[in-house]
Amino acid sequence: MYFLSGWPKRLLCPLGSPAEAPFHVQSDPQRTFFAVLAPARLSIWYSRTANGYILFFHITSTRGDKYLYEPVYPKGSPQMKGTPHFKEEQCAPALNLEMKKILDLQAPIMSLQSVLEDLLVATSDGLLHLIHWEGMTNGRKAINLCTVPFSVDLQSSRAGSFLGFADVHIRDMEYCATLDGFAVVFNDGKVGFITPVSSRFTAEQLHGVWPQDVVDGTCVAVNNKYRLMAFGCASGSVQVYTIDNTTGAMQLSHKLELTAKQYPDVKNCNCKEGHTDLVEFLMGNADIWNKTGAVKLVRWSPDNSVVIVTWEYGGLSLWSVFGAQLICTLGGDFAYRSDGTKKDPLKINSMSWGAEGYHLWVISGFGSQNTENESDSKSIVKQPGILLFQFIKSALTVNPCMSNQEQVLLQGEDRLYLNCGEASQSQNPRSSSAHSDHRTRREKSPFAGGGLESQSLSTLLGHRHWHVVQISSTYLESNWPIRFSAIDKLGQNIAVVGKFGFAHYSLLTKKWKLFGNITQEQNMIVTGGLAWWNDFIVLACYNISDRQEELRVYLRTSNLDNAFAHVTKTQAETLLLSVFRDMVIVFRADCSICLYSIERKSDGPNAAGIQVLQEVSMSRYIPHPFLVVSVTLTSVSTENGITLKMPQQARDAESIMLNLAGQLIMMQRDRSGPQIREKDSNPNQRKLLPFCPPVVLAQSVENVWTTCRANKQKRHLLEALWLSCGGAGMKVWLPLFPRDHRKPHSFLSQRIMLPFHINIYPLAVLFEDALVLGAVNDTLLYDSLYSRNSAREQLEVLFPFCVVERTSQIYLHHILRQLLVRNLGEQALLLAQSCATLPYFPHVLELMLHEVLEEEATSREPIPDPLLPTVAKFITEFPLFLQTVVHCARKTEYALWNYLFAAVGNPKDLFEECLMAQDLDTAASYLIILQNMEVPAVSRQHATLLFNTALEQGKWDLCRHMIRFLKAIGSGESETPPSTPTTQEPSSSGGGFEFFRNRSISLSQSADSVPASKFSLQKTLSMPSGPSGKRWSKDSDCAENMYIDMMLWRHARRLLEEVRLKDLGCFAAQLGFELISWLCKERARAARVDNFVLALKRLHKDFLWPLPIIPASSVSSPFKNGKYRTVGEQLLKSQSTDPFLNLEIDAGVSNVQRSQSWLGNIGPAHQEIDTASSHGPQMQDAFLSPLSNKGDECSIGSATDLTESSSMVDGDWTMVDENFSTLSLTQSELEHISMELASKGPHKSQVQLRYLLHIFMEAGCLDWCIVIGLILRESSIINQILVIIQSSEVDGEMLQNIKTGLHAVDRWASTDCPGYKPFLNIIKPHLQKLSEITEEQVQPEAFQPMTVGKTPEQTSPRAEENRSSLGHGSIPQGEVGGSSLVSRKEEDTTRAEEEEPFQDGTYDCSVS
């Protein structure tokens, strides 16, 4: 409602002796001038500030039209002195104060109070004097308090009890105009209310009432608008009373008390260590009294919406009307310095609110008697000074018609604060947001996409900062301060009202629009606020020149001029104004309500017209017009629309909501008489139904929110009425709908009032989004910028810098809980289902479960009807039940788990439900619950289940966590769940082999003539650093590791048996599985290919590799005779072997498109094709001719280090470039090349297949190598395998299996896949060699991999480094492995890797 802003200002007093230090400040009724009283000085201050200073006027005698201070404008400035009221508004007047008369009352004066035209004075001798302002007693006798009768209420006998002691007198008093009486505090601490029974103010006509339980009163303040009396007490609390309308007794409305939350020192009791919290709690009240002292001052703000309280020992606190605390300076940055030391609280001797509540004038004295050391005590400000605290406040405090908006608007004396982000979406169907605190706590799925929901989430809530609009200085100069402000429904336009006229601002154009004619502006005073209707501004004003009350409508887009305004004269002054749909409702000073229709007109400059619809007199129900806080028209009624006869009635069922001094009164249309059918009547002449007598809906109401929008999906929220009730929290008047449109029971209420507490002060309600928006004060310390010795003098050190932050809160869980408490589960379900699409709905369920669990499980008393089972049953209606329960459990103490799971079910059953629902992440959370609640054997059993399921589904992150978890159980660490590893795990969303980016794998370029003695398979795999790598070397003989390994082996065996090579590669890469050594052991068992055809088909499918096809034009193909053989094959090969040509290719592009775009970059082939083609046999029926010697020299290349073969490819490209124009390809030749490229799979699949080929080669699984060679259709691979078979002894059973498998593939190709026939024909010579090989047994050790001690840190530069040098062919052929074209046959893998580390650089094949 009210919020502190910035630092307070210090006014420079001309302090001389301590006798001149001020001790009291008081404003005039208009709060324009402030009188500051010192023992020997009375000074008058002018409230208008300029340049950060208050203009001080010494009292001098002046004559004529003289001013102490006048503004000086630069030459040529438009602000000239020709404006009306220039002197009064912008010049500080010189005042003349004269001694008129001295009146001796012969006793010390205790209290002065202005009553209309008289002055009421209370003296210490127990007398009340009524004095005229002229200083005459008017012959009336002083009233002796002992003769005034007091009773508990006014219904008692007339002769009440009298004050029964002689020295009684009034310590403090204040007059209440709306109650017509005085709230008084006596010197003995009793409090009361004295009212004249008749108009005569004599002892015989006065009667007093008092509450019997208040005996420690110290001061009093009266709120005229809400008819409240706030009595400060010596205990440190403030008791707020009101007068009962029927009995006249004083009723306690509420108390303003500090709690440990607002004042943390409450718990620092002076009791011995070891005492329980209960002792601290019991001593808390006395401790507050000890630390704060008695209440010293209480002051209501000018708009009566907040009250400020200060205590004897210092500090101040701000509360809303009905007790919601907004600010307290006894804790936080107000009470402590940045180094943690405690400050002395601000002691306030006197205070008074400034104009419109934007300032609080304070006469202060800093420091208590307890100082830390002498140097500190010297620097404390000993003398009192005048401080000005600055406030910004909600527009609702003065212009309650803003309550049907979904924006938060705050107004300061010269600027506006609005929440940017929500505005443009308030009318649109949108998803909503949650508090920032809630967002951080929600567990986000790694697969959650940033769709529309998350986008509008941030747009809706924006951030903690405000959109600040500086009010036009031209308007402020003559119209300070701002009185009203309003924003339109879309949040794009703002209007403000100052002393005269008004101005409006567009957030889109960033421009203010003021009256062109300043006389028109100065001639109108807005009285009842203003509101927006579409593009129009509706306001009620007083026309000064015509002395007429008017209702005006201005069009935003036209010039601000009365010529463009529609003016309607009214009978009485308008106090409040509001707009509902196309109707304007005004409340007038004669206690009447008038309804107007407003409509847009197409003709004339006014463009809008207003007509009176109905007038309703409220004088019977309203004792004083000033008591009406707000008036609004709504569609809310006791009937929820289903029972109404016609939908039109539901839409037009307007009710008047009136907030009368905190009482919410509703007047509905009276539908008991004959109904007029709408089609029979002219809408312009239709007589509106009368209103029923008023009904009280709620008490202690500060604000009301309702909307005129409709949404069938969210009827509960949009047809509800939202109330803010101060310290009592919020209330919602919720409609109850029968399910499936059944007829409702006549005995059931159709609405219900539900109370709930929220942690913020509500300023706006987002109806569909189930959100409350608010604001909160935050503080920043700057004391570290100043040195310690001079620090105490600086305001920046004494006070923190205050800022206002936006905040929001979910309330849906409170409403659902209240419905369940009242056995309205069906309504709760309807409401929850309508909100299930909100992004924070899972959090709503979690909050409800958590709050009920905490309350019931920690209750010291037995709960007769516990709510937790009902809440648990309710949550099971939603698919998020399992996640909700486990998230709640993990945020709750372990001690409460048994109570929780007794209601929601056994965690073992819930775990199994998660597995059945394939929700493995939630199952993992339940595993931690089971680990703490069950024996290790049960945890191991469930963890094994989850581990196997995670392996099957490829949830690699979860698998890694499960490995740690199982090891922790085995090593006796089951008390604490395993912590998340600190090293960054590879992303599990990709299907690639990220694991191998740290591995260096190299194969020899040619395997044609490698000597048998030199050939050996070298394992150059290095494990990645991190937990997954260490697992295999540490505690390898541990039973727990063996248990985990058995599961991993079983899964790998299953993948191989099901021919899921891609999954096997991912599995090994993600979990650091030692694939080669395991394959060596399983070579004759699981790693044996039983069905070559099935394996080939499965690989085509898994790796998205197209089956080869024969084009129709292959009969006349130039490739038949091998003429362009090398170009075709080299082009095909280079797509896979030169990694730099394909790095930017998106995997989503079709193969044909990729081939064509890639071919577009290639020039014509070179001349050496013919010579190259003459080296091999030619076959008439083959699609591809056999590889030449040159082609055979190029091996399959390296799986992850493909740069070795790029040297030869680069050489070919050099020849192509040199002979660019010597040969051109025909259309048919290009078609063949593109056809070949189209038959290749994605680049990612190529890399993976080549890597797997390398793995199987090293493990000696030659049958799998044959299958991969077939799918890649590269005869060099088959050739290399033959070389291995010739140079080393291979198991005869494997050879037989290979022969059988290849024959089966040949038969399958002949019948089902003729595209494979050309390649099978190419490798026929190799197959013949295979059958000729004698079956000689070789030592199995030849295939055991030997580890090369090469760590990832020693590997050669990564592909990112090589790319710059090799990617553009900038290095000559001879420098980059050019010898591979001639002879690299004598070098084995290890020597190549050691001698040419930079040419065999690691290829970074990170695939995501």
TrEMBL record:
Protein name: Protein RIC1 homolog
InterPro entries in alphabetical order: Ric1, RIC1_C, WD40/YVTN_repeat-like_dom_sf, WD40_repeat_dom_sf
Major subcellular location class: membrane
Keyword Membrane annotated: yes
Classification via Pfam families: Beta-prop_RIC1_2nd, RIC1
Localization, UniProt: Membrane
Species classification: Eukaryota, Metazoa, Chordata, Craniata, Vertebrata
GO cellular component, one term: Ric1-Rgp1 guanyl-nucleotide exchange factor complex
Biased composition (Basic and acidic residues): 1383-1392
UniProt domain RIC1 C-terminal alpha solenoid region: residue ranges: 813-971
